[in-house]
């Protein structure tokens, strides 16, 4: 498959602090394409094309939609906050997200491929892996089976391989789905028959480019043979660097309207990580099937007796966010958690159970103290060119705990900051205006809730904004 050019990444300098930042774990999914879905190589940088994919899925929730992201011919060399936000939006819409990994038709080493898988797991909350340049030669089957199993062991549990052409029956089952066609024009329906019909259609996908218009009759026929399809009017040298203008129609034409609105499936991939002697951080992935109605929140339960009994920690988060920090806990204590998804119909069954043990408290004389806890960290960047010269860091969660502190760092070329607000509350300037590149730090004590951080500059400028919130500050 044709690869994508390099992506972007933003770092923001911040005040010196020693904090452990827990990694979000990837999700766990098992997919079956009864209704033929769309698998889109979304090799664009997060922009309106990603919104197009999300909106089509929201409009047709019964149609499975899988998006393959490709930051830089793989995960790239550094984490990109815009990808984190874009992936979260896709998940909220019910889109399954895979990470692109090249395999060199079997020539790339297992260690190199596994390293890419590990990087995706560390940086982004994905549902699976797309193994491009998949071999179809006899003898490589075990290589791809092992790669797929490794991805699944890391919580990236939907795997797709792409030889881009016919393959051998011995490759069925090495991954969950195989792309058997990737070329210009539509495949003939007869080419999708033969030995393929001995297996469930969920094993196969097609990718077609250079197609000016889509045909409902073709999609109806093809749907009998493949679990996923994609058609675009884009063409060589890179047909995957855009989304076709008829993408919404493609999804709509695959919507059989056979599914009714139900309660969602449970969230997956729940993990629990001890952040201190009094805090455990949770993360999970949105369900692949939202029941035909958008997820509106999550129910979080906890247990201190290994799940024999459960207490409701949060009845409804009222947010599509897939992370939560449980604070005010006892040191050296094991807590178990489970999470349920909520939509307009009802509440799902609980997710998998995840447990963590809080750290032991440190003592100094007769005084017991707890560590400073990182509640949230987020960054964004861009260029402001018109009044009111503002950039927004959206939906920042200030977290919980005692003695909270929000710190916002801003680097804006030759344009001082006039104000910084969190949820409409003004922050205080601490340090500002170093040399020509204006670098500033602003702070707010005891912030609460989730809100937008809005930074206002004096004029046009490129700008980088980073923010973190901590608790336990004396």
Notable traits:
single chain; 474 residues; alpha/beta; TIM Barrel; Immunoglobulin-like; Jelly Rolls; 3 domains; eight-stranded parallel barrel; five-stranded antiparallel beta sheet; 26 strands
Describe it.
The chain is an alpha/beta fold and 474 residues long. It has three domains: 37-253, TIM Barrel (Alpha-Beta Barrel); 268-366, Immunoglobulin-like (Sandwich), CATH 2.60.40; 373-471, Jelly Rolls, CATH 2.60.120. The chain is 14% helix and 34% strand. It is built from six helices and 26 strands. α1 (48-59) runs parallel beside α6 (247-253). The N and C termini lie far apart (54 Å). Mean pLDDT is 86; it is low at 4-33 and 363-369.
Rg is 24 Å
CATH fold-level assignment of the largest domain: TIM Barrel
Biggest sheet statistics: 8 strands, parallel, barrel
Total of domains: 3
In summary, what is this structure?
The protein has 474 residues and is an alpha/beta fold. The chain has helices spanning 48-59, 81-93, 110-123, 141-153, 216-222, 247-253; strands at residues 37-42, 65-69, 96-102, 128-132, 158-162, 177-184, 204-209, 228-231, 268-274, 280-285, 297-303, 311-314, 323-326, 334-342, 354-357, 362-364, 367-369, 373-384, 390-397, 405-413, 417-422, 425-426, 428-431, 437-445, 450-457, 461-471. The strands form 6 sheets. An 8-stranded parallel barrel has the order 1-2-3-4-5-6-7-8, surrounded by 5 helices.
């Amino acid at each position: 498959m044709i690869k994508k050019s390099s992506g972007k990444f933003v770092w923001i300098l911040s005040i010196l602090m020693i904090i452990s930042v827990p990694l979000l774990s990837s999700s766990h999914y098992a997919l079956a394409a009864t209704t033929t879905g769309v698998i889109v190589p979304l090799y664009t940088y997060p922009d309106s094309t990603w919104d197009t994919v999300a909106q089509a899925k929201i409009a047709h929730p019964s149609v499975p939609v899988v998006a393959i992201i490709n930051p830089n011919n793989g995960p790239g060399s550094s984490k990109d906050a815009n990808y984190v936000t874009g992936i979260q939006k896709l998940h909220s819409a019910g889109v399954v997200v895979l990470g692109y990994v090249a395999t060199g038709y079997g020539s790339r080493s297992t260690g190199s491929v596994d390293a890419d898988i590990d990087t995706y797991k560390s940086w982004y909350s994905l549902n699976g892996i797309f193994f491009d340049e998949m071999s179809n030669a006899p003898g490589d089957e075990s290589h791809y089976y092992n790669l797929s199993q490794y991805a699944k062991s890391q919580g990236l549990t939907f795997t797709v391989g792409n030889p881009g052409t016919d393959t051998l029956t011995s490759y069925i089952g090495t991954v969950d789905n195989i792309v058997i066609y990737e070329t210009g024009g539509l495949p003939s329906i007869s080419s999708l028959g033969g030995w393929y019909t001995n297996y469930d259609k969920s094993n196969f996908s097609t990718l077609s480019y250079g197609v000016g218009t889509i045909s409902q009759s073709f999609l109806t026929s093809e749907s009998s043979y493949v679990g996923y399809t994609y058609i675009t009017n884009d063409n060589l040298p890179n047909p995957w660097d855009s989304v076709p203008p008829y993408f919404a129609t493609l999804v709509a034409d695959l919507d059989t309207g056979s599914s009714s609105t139900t309660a969602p499936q449970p969230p997956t991939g729940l993990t629990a990580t001890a952040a201190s002697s009094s805090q455990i951080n949770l993360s999970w992935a949105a369900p692949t099937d939202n029941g035909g109605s958008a997820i509106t929140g999550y129910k979080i339960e906890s247990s201190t007796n290994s799940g024999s009994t459960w207490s409701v920690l949060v009845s409804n988060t009222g947010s599509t966010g897939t992370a939560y920090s449980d604070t005010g806990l006892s040191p050296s204590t094991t807590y178990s958690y489970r999470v349920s998804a909520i939509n307009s119909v009802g509440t799902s069954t609980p997710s998998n159970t995840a447990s963590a043990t809080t750290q032991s408290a440190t003592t100094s004389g007769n005084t017991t103290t707890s560590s400073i806890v990182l509640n949230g960290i987020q960054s964004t960047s861009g260029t402001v060119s018109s009044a009111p010269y503002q950039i927004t860091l959206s939906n920042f969660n200030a977290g919980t705990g005692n003695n909270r502190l929000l710190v916002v760092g801003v680097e804006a070329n030759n344009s001082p900051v006039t104000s910084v607000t969190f949820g409409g509350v003004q922050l205080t300037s601490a340090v500002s205006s170093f040399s020509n590149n204006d670098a500033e730090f602003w702070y707010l004590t005891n912030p609460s809730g989730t809100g937008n951080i809005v930074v206002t500059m004096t004029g046009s400028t490129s700008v980088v904004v980073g923010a973190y919130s901590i608790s336990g500050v004396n």
